[in-house]
Amino acid sequence: MQSLGFKMLVALAAAAENRIDASPMEGFDPKQFDEILGLAELGVESCVVLAVGFRSPEDKTQAFAKVRLAREDVVVEK
Q1: 50 and 8 in contact (C-beta within 8 Å)?
Q2: Which of 12, 13, 1 is nearest to 49 (CA)?
Q3: What value, to the nearest 5°, has the Cα angle with vertex 44 and ends 41 and 47?
């Protein structure tokens, strides 16, 4: 059986190959997610969330340079 991480990697790579934006999401409540989407009635449950879609050509920020904060501004070392 393949790991969930590997399957997510394959999904991300397939999206990228097809020029589809994709981003895994953390911090969701699986039980609430399942309830909202009615997944129990389908006999399935959520374990990951992967947002996929196409960029809007009207998104003026998509051409902006990426901004990365300096490591020392983000990481606290003891």
Answers
A1: yes
A2: 12
A3: 135
Q: What is the pLDDT of residue 2?
A: 64
Determine the Cα–Cα distance for residues 51 and 7; give it in Å rounded to an integer: 15
Report the 10 Å Cβ neighbour count for 73. Answer: 7
Q: What is the pLDDT of residues 11-62, one digit of tens each?
A: 999 999 999 999 999 899 999 999 999 999 999 999 999 999 998 889 888 8
Residue 1 confidence (pLDDT) above 80: no
Q: Are 22 and 9 in contact (CB under 8 A)?
A: no
- Give the C-alpha separation, 67 to 74, whole Å: 13
